[in-house]
Amino acid sequence: MIKKLLIILLANLLLAYCLPIILLDKIDHSHNNLNRLYTAGLSSSLFIIIELWSSSEQSYTYEPNFYKTRPIKIILTLLCFLLGIFFILAIKYQWFVTDIQFLKSMIENHGQSLVLCEPMNKKLKEKQEERQTLTDLDKQTLLLTDSVMILQQNRINQMTKMIK
Q1: Last residue of a domain, one of 74, 97, 120
Q2: Of the residues 97, 113, 139, which one is the last residue of a structural domain?
Q3: Is the N end or the C end of the chain the one with fewer CB atoms within 10 Å?
Q4: Which residue in 74, 56, 157 sits closest to 114, CA to CA?
Q5: 132 and 92, same structural domain?
Q6: pTM value > 0.85
Q7: CA 66 to CA 156: how far, in whole Å?
Q8: How many domains does the chain have?
Q9: pLDDT tens-digit map of 59-95
Q10: How far is the C-alpha of 148 from the C-alpha of 144, rounded, in Å?
């Protein structure tokens, strides 16, 4: 069971660490940073707790004789819970995060904002070009996405210059 859990933990940690890269507008905005590691660690520790207590036979750690493994599961759950608390506090208080690490994580964050704004902005501009009536909310959203994209790109450029 422990070996299976370690494999699951490592796979989940790797996936949770790499997944945010998919949400970036440019690969240049991807930087290794502690905040992404902390977030991946938090996600993985919660995943392991769920996996430990899953009663489904499809669970990788399912044990037909649950009561023999219960003390181990309780200890591992407490350990993962404490790790989760550590990762929450590390994110909240930016433990061990240098100014460079912070800027790298903010570049990723701003890049993800661009990814979210661009499709909506494009959709509303296409609607406008097709001479469809834009509602007041559409107009406000278009203005908002325009300004967010300009501001976020400016911030990305500024932070990129700062870390070089």
Answers
A1: 97
A2: 97
A3: C
A4: 157
A5: no
A6: no
A7: 51
A8: 2
A9: 655 566 655 677 888 999 999 999 999 999 999 999 9
A10: 6
